[in-house]
Structures are given as C-alpha cells and as structure tokens.
Amino acid sequence: MEVHNPWGVIAGVVVLVVALFSAYMSYTYYRKFDTPLSKRLAKMALISSVSAIIGALGAMIVSYTETGMWWIMAVFFTVSYLTITVAVSIYLRLFYRSISGTVPDAIHEDAKPGEAAPYEAGLEEVLPRGGFTVQPQDAPKLKPLCRLAKGAIYVGRNRKPQMCPRFDKVIWISRIKAPNSVDPSKLHVLQESVIRFVSERGGGVIVILEGIEHLVIYNDFRSVIKFLTSLKDYMILTGSSLFVMVEEGTFESTETSILRREFPPIDLDEVLSKTEEIALFGALPRNIAENEKTADGDSEPSRASQ
User: Fold this and answer.
1) Would you say residue 192 lies in a domain?
2) In a 3-state reduction of DSSP, which class is residue 42?
3) What is the pLDDT of residues 23-73, one digit of tens each?
4) I need a labelling partner for 81 at 20 to 30 A (CA). Which of 98, 109, 139, 148 fits?
5) In a domain, 237, yes or no
6) DSSP line for 243-289
C-alpha cells in the first residue's frame, strides 16, 4: 500500500516516541510526588503527553491513508499545547513571585480567637508554627512536611509509627519500662524530652503526638491541656509544628471546644501547597539579596580607592 505522505508519517513517529517518553516520566513523577503543586504539574504534563500521543497517531493515520481524520490532530494537539502552556504559566507565575519577593515567607493568618498564632519566620522556615489538631485519616499528608523539617519526633502509643518516612526520635507512652518509653503520668518528662529534642535541632521540627486520650486516663484533662499548650508555645518560639492526632468524638463537646481553641484544625492541603511554594522558590529572593549585598560590598572598596 502506497504511503501518501511519508514525511508526515516520520514526523508522527518522532512526536509519538517523544510523547510516550514524556508520558512515562510524567506518570512516574506523579506517582512519586505527594504534594499538591508537584502532583498538579505532573498531572498536567501527563495530560499533555497523552493528548500528543493521540494527535501523533492521528497524524500517522492521515499521512498514511489520507483519510478525513485531520480533526484528531487538530483537537488533541491543541489540547496538548494548551495544557502544557497552562503548566508553564503556573511555574512562571511562582517564579516571578519569588523574584519579586511576594512568595509568602510564612504560613499564617492574622491571629484571631481560636486560630493559630502568626508565623513570622524567615524564608528558610517552611513549617507552620504552633500546635494543631489533625484527623487520623489525614496523617499520610504529614509525610511531605516531615521531609522538609529539620527533625521529626513521635510521641504516642505506636512503637513503629508510619506518619513520617522516618522519625529521628520515638517516645513510647507506656507504663512498662523499656527503651525510649515514658510513663503517661509523667507529663513533665514528656515535655522535657520533646523540648530537648527541638532545642538540639535548632527548631524547625515536626512533633506528632498520638494517643492524647491515653494521657487523659492517667492525668486530668486540665493537666494535659497545660502540657500541650506549653509545648505549643515552645513550637511558636522555635518555628516548629506540633500536630495532635484526635479523632472526632474522642472527648465531650466542652473538652473538644477547649482543645480546638488552643489547637485549631489545620487544612493540610493548603499548608502543603504554601509549604511547597516556599521550599521551591523561597531561597531565590534570599540568594538575590545576598548577591546584591556582596556586590555592594565589592563596590565600596572600589569607590574608596578612587
């Protein structure tokens, strides 16, 4: 059978090979990423690649047979182009915000009753300061924050917690004497252990506390709240995060209200988006400022010599 447009077939094959490779890479990264912005960009790249694959197949069919299937190329190449253009635009917008200094240097809102305290740290600190409550089903979303933290410590009933890829320290709440175990009735020991770890790491630490109901069994609720608020205050001072795992219905409405007032629920999806933006682009304004400072320092001796 005669090929009506051999160059069109060759072009279609080239685009197909490139698009297949791009689709494979995009899907691989989509599976690896666990933060919203990265997954979004990988997903858009995957959609663009798949559309290009279909468009390339359409180009090969039309070039080989001269059938009236040109609309396949028109539709899917257009979708591919628009999708990748939007993805690049998102990236450029973030890049521009970083250079212009409008990247948020903190994850915070103005302090309001029942909300977390403001985060007024530098660009290098990407964790939300203070204490927050988290639903157990949202625990997997903490993994990206664990990777960005200077250290991760777990306090709870699980000897092999899975919230973070790796914990630098695990404190097992138990009355049994064992390595790294602390009696649940000794809140001051728990507090000292956590504060010491955060201090040694220089702040920027993520603390995950699970099993607050177990602490209440051996202490009254008021004492547990005092213990938690003391830790929260230290987190604020050191640019660290305390996440208290609490399931709905664990406490009575009054106790839940008190807990939520000191430890408001946190939208981890929003935090991850802002955190990733800071982690990806937050260093740029700082580096630019350092370069400008160095340039000014170099120019001063020159002016003095003149």
Assistant:
1) yes
2) helix
3) 999 999 888 887 777 888 889 999 999 999 999 998 888 887 777 778 888
4) 98
5) yes
6) EEE--TTSS-HHHHHHHHHHS-B--HHHHHHHHHHHHHHTHHHHHHH
